[in-house]
């Protein structure tokens, strides 16, 4: 197995990037910046364009030709190796809005910094003779610098610009568009995508703020740029982390320094969750702690053909710091699993009952501090008894983690009782993937992947935290908190990753409960980011999810011991 590091990044330096804003609210921020802070559109465009140029320069200086953006360039290109743009013309495609103006100012800054010496600009329309806007002034400056500025008209010269381009900067449209692109902006987006897709492996596309077409009302099927990188201007727009759109954004590079921090602090509809930030929200393990003070996690998991799910869930709870993991399995699985569980306890289902905590001495040695139900569990009638016990425990204050079959069983109980959806008591965490959430909510998978607000509404309605599993995880709490975990790691897309995640949730939730600091949102955020960070530690190879327990345990121990 490759080596991995538990070194932590500077959480304070990442904090500023964690605030996300709904696209429709970014206009409110701009208006307040102008009305109350004296930052008019000229100042904002100048600051944004320069900051985008600086962010891209920094990306190159740290990564050179091997960055996610420039992976498509010529490996023999001398300037790529030096951390400069690939040789050949840079083509800026700019629309009539602020994104177009930002792109023009960015190009001017790159030229002045000697990073670009061959460029051209395609505009959706030329400025009027008497126009005085940030866009028109940027056009004037570029023309004075000798950069060809051409009106989009589909002429042979336009086709030649696309054919010769070594890099395309996309500033066609921003989040202000309503509905799908049409007219000239649509023609430009189609041309950019066609050029990129027919260019083999040599043409990168960089979008400013959002890939053009990704407005606040974006829906699957709407045309949108396929970017290799997106220079995401602060505050970053939530639409970039919508699972259905995220693959179109390429590498998301935060662009800072446009708005004063005091102004930014007034805006934020969601947050981008990272391990560096979220691990600090979990209390550390006291130096004198013993196993019961670290939490007893009781896991009901595994079935014929899915015994591995039980073992992986148990490993996840242990890796996240549970003091004692007690796993209840069907009798036929007990002799198979018991010898391989290490420090975890295996209990045959036939010997389990709600009264198991009582002993002759009256000491409740195995009273759970958290229940986890569902990984590879199946949906037999006997499961309902366990589910009812866990639901009663959740009412009395015990955290409940529901995964996989546990989520499906909840829906079954509601259908049998003619209830639309279950309502918890604020101590439940559900970890569904798209198919399970479709069963639970009734919304089609495609809609769930395109509308994160649906997950927020469901969490509020059910009074439970929902950690939605996808290439971008979405975490919603009943109180309105909303977080995104940017995964985009296909090595985690394998059977068993979700079982490990559920185990992380159980291990963290149980210990928080013992310490009387349980917050389902904080526990799920730490679990989700721990999974993604552990995957990154593994490096680029295909692995069994059970292997993830080792780097996860190292990360968790570094954070909490």
| Rg from Cα | 26 Å
Distance between the termini: 25 Å
Give the proportion of residues in helices: 25-40%
Give the overall silhouette.
Answer: elongated
**Number of separate helices:** 20
The main β sheet shows up as: 12 strands, mixed
Classification by helices and strands: alpha/beta
Quaternary structure type: single chain
Mean pLDDT across every amino acid position: 89
Number of strands: 19
Low-confidence stretches: 1-16, 71-83
Strand % is: 5-15%
Q: For the largest beta sheet, what order do the strands appear in spatially?
A: 8-1-10-19-18-17-16-15-14-11-12-13
Write the layout of secondary structure elements.
Blueprint: H1 11-15, E1 19-21, H2 23-37, H3 41-63, H4 78-81, E2 90-94, H5 98-112, E3 119-123, H6 134-144, E4 149-151, H7 156-164, E5 167-171, H8 183-197, E6 205-208, E7 229-233, E8 236-237, E9 251-255, H9 261-264, E10 270-272, H10 275-278, E11 296-300, H11 307-319, E12 324-329, H12 334-337, E13 345-348, E14 370-373, H13 381-395, E15 400-403, H14 405-416, E16 428-431, H15 434-441, H16 445-450, H17 453-462, E17 465-468, E18 472-476, E19 482-486, H18 497-514, H19 520-538, H20 549-560
Helix pairs in contact: 3-5, 5-6, 11-18, 11-20, 14-15, 18-19, 19-20
Provide an overview of this structure.
51% of the residues are buried. This protein has 20 helices and 19 strands. The chain has helices at 11-15, 23-37, 41-63, 78-81, 98-112, 134-144, 156-164, 183-197, 261-264, 275-278, 307-319, 334-337, 381-395, 405-416, 434-441, 445-450, 453-462, 497-514, 520-538, 549-560, and strands at 19-21, 90-94, 119-123, 149-151, 167-171, 205-208, 229-233, 236-237, 251-255, 270-272, 296-300, 324-329, 345-348, 370-373, 400-403, 428-431, 465-468, 472-476, 482-486. It is elongated. α3 (41-63) packs across α5 (98-112) and α11 packs across α18 (497-514).
């Amino acid at each position: 197995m490759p080596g991995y590091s538990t070194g932590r990044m500077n959480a304070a330096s990442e904090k500023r990037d964690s605030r996300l804003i709904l696209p429709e609210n970014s206009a409110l921020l701009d208006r307040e910046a102008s009305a109350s802070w004296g930052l008019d559109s000229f100042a904002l465009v100048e600051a944004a364009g320069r900051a985008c140029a600086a962010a891209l320069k920094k990306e190159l200086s740290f990564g050179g030709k091997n960055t996610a953006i420039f992976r498509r360039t010529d490996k023999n290109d001398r300037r790529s190796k030096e951390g400069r743009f690939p040789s050949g013309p840079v083509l800026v495609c700019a629309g009539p809005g602020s994104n177009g103006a930002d792109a023009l100012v960015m190009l001017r800054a790159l030229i002045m910094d000697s990073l670009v010496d061959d460029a051209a600009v395609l505009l959706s329309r030329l400025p009027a003779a008497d126009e005085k806007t940030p866009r028109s002034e940027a056009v004037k400056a570029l023309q004075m610098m000798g950069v060809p500025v051409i009106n989009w008209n589909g002429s042979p010269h336009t086709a030649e610009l696309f054919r010769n381009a070594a890099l395309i900067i996309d500033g066609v449209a921003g989040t202000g568009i309503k509905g799908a692109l049409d007219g000239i902006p649509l023609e430009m987006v189609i041309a950019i995508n066609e050029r990129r897709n027919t260019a083999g492996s040599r043409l990168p596309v960089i979008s400013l703020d959002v890939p053009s077409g990704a407005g606040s009302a974006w829906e699957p099927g709407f045309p949108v740029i396929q970017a290799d990188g997106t220079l995401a201007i602060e505050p970053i727009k939530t639409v970039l982390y919508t699972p259905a759109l995220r693959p179109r954004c390429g590498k998301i590079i935060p662009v800072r320094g446009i708005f004063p921090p005091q102004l930014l602090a007034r805006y934020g509809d969601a947050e981008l969750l990272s391990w560096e930030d979220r691990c600090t929200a979990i209390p550390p393990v006291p130096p004198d702690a013993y196993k019961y003070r670290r939490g007893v996690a009781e896991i009901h998991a595994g079935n014929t053909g899915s015994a591995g799910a039980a073992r992986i869930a148990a490993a996840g709870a242990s890796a996240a710091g549970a003091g004692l993991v007690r796993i209840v399995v069907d009798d036929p699985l007990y002799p198979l699993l018991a010898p391989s569980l290490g420090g975890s306890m295996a209990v045959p289902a036939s010997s389990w009952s709600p009264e198991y905590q009582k002993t002759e001495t009256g000491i409740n040695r195995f009273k759970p501090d958290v229940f986890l139900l569902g990984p590879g569990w199946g949906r037999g009638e006997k499961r309902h008894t366990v589910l009812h016990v866990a639901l009663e425990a959740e009412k009395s204050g015990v955290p409940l983690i529901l995964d996989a079959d546990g989520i499906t069983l909840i829906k079954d109980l509601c259908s049998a009782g003619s209830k639309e959806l279950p309502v918890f008591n604020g101590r439940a965490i559900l970890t569904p993937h798209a198919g399970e959430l479709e069963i639970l909510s009734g919304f089609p998978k495609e809609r769930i992947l395109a509308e994160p607000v649906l997950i927020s509404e469901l969490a509020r309605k059910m009074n439970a935290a929902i950690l939605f599993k996808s290439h971008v995880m979405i975490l919603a709490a009943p109180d309105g908190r909303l977080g995104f975990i940017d995964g985009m790691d296909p090595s985690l897309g394998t059977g068993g990753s979700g079982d490990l995640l559920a185990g992380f949730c159980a291990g963290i939730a149980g210990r928080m409960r013992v310490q009387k600091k349980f917050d389902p949102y904080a526990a799920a955020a730490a679990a989700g980011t721990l999974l993604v960070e552990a995957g990154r530690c593994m490096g680029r190879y295909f692995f069994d999810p059970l292997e993830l327990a080792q780097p996860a345990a190292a990360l968790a121990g570094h954070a909490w011991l």
